[in-house]
Amino acid sequence: MRIDGDICIACEACLPYCPMEAISMQNGIAVIEQDECVDCGVCLKSGVCPVDGIIFEVSPWPRSLRVAFSDPTTKHKETSAGGRGTDEMKTNDVTARYKWGWVGMGCEFGRPGIGTRFRDIEKAAQVLAKHGAAFEPNNPVTFLMEDTQTGKLKEEALNEKVLSAIIECMFPIEKFKEVIDALKVVSEEVDTVFSVACINRADPDGSYPLRKMLDKMGIPYYINGKQNVGLGRPLANFLGGD
Amino acid sequence: MTHTLHRRGSARSLSEDYVILILKAIGINDEGNAPKVQEFLRIALRHKPVNIGSALKGGMIDKPEEVINIANNIGHAVFDNPEAVTAFLKELKQANLGLSIVVSGIFEKVDECLDKAGLKHHTANFSLGIWGRTDKLPGDDILEITTMCGHALISPNLVKEMARAIKAGTKTPEEAAKILMPQCTCGVFNPTRAARLLANIAEKGEIV
To answer: What is the rounded distance in angstroms from the CA atom of residue A212 to the CA atom of residue B83?
Structure first.
């Protein structure tokens, strides 16, 4: 994003809209600091500029990553999905991606509202890979990996900044404590925040094995969360002709 | 796409915050869903949601037909009470749309709604909270509002500006929430809850 300095009237209306605080007044006009801007488009889409002085120009790789990860109305070329991850558990009643005995994990770097460079994401990806996590193949961060066995990202992506990006992976529930302990170490090494989500299929009696494990390990979790309620028609029905 | 997870707040505040979404599974049932998603939104409107949205247009509860007309593969509806959630889920069960339905909210409250609607939870996503440089975060009172847009499109500074406007008497909490609402393009922002939270911030001392 940039502001046309020739038409900016210095009203400062756009300043509070930037989630990254990347807009400031310099020499009497509003200026967007390019290295901090994540191309989310909030300033432009808010319609707050009275002279239409906010401009979005398509950027070449690797800066193109910024809009792809930061503007949820943009689709990733590789996955055809909008947003920053996949449908994860939201369609698990249809896809059966998360099976009994497994835990899905989503580490959303930069969330909430701090932003992240891919170099911090790589730190966590490499640690998760060391502990045997299987990365979700359709996740856009996975597409940036040079090697999914090591979690190494493409070098040219590392300094790009985005509003947030999610590492999605999966591992057997027996490895949960080991993975959490490794993530705790990573959390002390990164220069941003990340929000951690853990997915679990309910047992036939309605209980969640992961919740029991979290309680036993004394790991705090929010009282609120997301639940798929099983109204989707399972993939098996499609395959069988329903 | 964990955009309705990680919403922060007290049990009391979160008890007024439920998001229900319908969506397709890419590569499996991702064709011809517009009528189903539109039906989902029309059923939702019968139960007085505080917001509705598609993936591209949100914060347009005053113009629901505009949202319904472009709804394709994803729909969202936000409610501020569990009774409406239960009634909506009952109708969704009867409608048998065949796409996945996800409910976000306090687990205990949502399970009560599911039970009354004759449904069972299938898979959960638990939030283990925020890790790393939490010293960079704004205050919890601001986060309670900004985390209602999971894509972080609502700037903390805009929230503060709205709170200042309420304090100065130039905006009501409802007017301020209405300015924040369209920043969340998915339409999962809860303006009713936001207005209460903004009023609370405005009542406090200096807003920095």
So the answer is: 29
